[in-house]
């Protein structure tokens, strides 16, 4: 491409397999992503990104020296700076997975998770318990992530999980893994807590699997 737009970013730790997995996952929530399965040995990831509104695709390459190259044709110039900032934010959030501390909230979430994943989905009351525990786990994780950006008690202890997600995504521009699924689990919990509505098996399985998945990548 002539006059190719090019941005170089170095994010230590991004080549860790878990971080690369999270990077792909977060990218796929914001773009249509096509990953190249055949890459040279000095490269860890090569992908083409597309999105409605973008006139051309954006190319992302991650190298073994932890440098990331973002390239696009001149037609993308109007959007390029914002896209680079967006991708840089996703890179840094992906590496945060390695730096997650064993805080009180994370340890508590892990203990609840171990208990929750062994509960049977065959009985009505147990399914309602699963949904409730999943919501507690996810709220702990979201609150812990938010605590990196604010120490206000109102934000951490009194705001709903939806408000906390909104603060992370909008105010602090932190990409969140599966925010819709987190909100869906909260809605299932609300049906139990506020209406006494029974949880069906598919809902309990969804809550269990979603929470286990999110705990591993949040």
Protein traits:
alpha+beta; 5-stranded antiparallel beta sheet; 56% helix; 5 strands; 2 domains; single chain; 218 residues
Question: What count of structural domains?
Answer: 2
Summed over residues and divided by their number, the pLDDT gives a mean of 94
Percent of sequence in beta strands: 5-15%
Percentage of residues in helical conformation:
55-70%
**How many helices?**
8
Placed side by side, the strands forming the largest sheet appear as: 1-5-4-3-2
Helix-strand makeup class: alpha+beta
Helix-strand pattern, N to C?
EHEEEEHHHHHHH
**Can you summarize the main beta sheet?**
5 strands, antiparallel
Termini, distance in Å?
37 Å
In short:
This protein is of the alpha+beta class and 218 residues long. Helices cover 56% and strands 14% of the residues.
Please give the structural blueprint.
Blueprint: E1 5-10, H1 17-28, E2 32-35, E3 43-50, E4 58-63, E5 67-72, H2 77-99, H3 104-116, H4 124-146, H5 153-158, H6 161-171, H7 179-195, H8 201-217
Antiparallel strand pairs: 1-5, 2-3, 3-4, 4-5
What does this structure look like?
There is one protein chain. With 218 residues, the protein is an alpha+beta fold. It folds into two domains: 5-99, 2-Layer Sandwich (Double Stranded RNA Binding Domain), CATH 3.30.160; 104-217. It has eight helices and five strands; from the N terminus they run βαββββααααααα. The chain has helices spanning 17-28, 77-99, 104-116, 124-146, 153-158, 161-171, 179-195, 201-217; strands spanning 5-10, 32-35, 43-50, 58-63, 67-72. A five-stranded antiparallel beta sheet has the order 1-5-4-3-2, covered by helices on one side. A hairpin with a 7-residue loop joins strand 2 and strand 3.
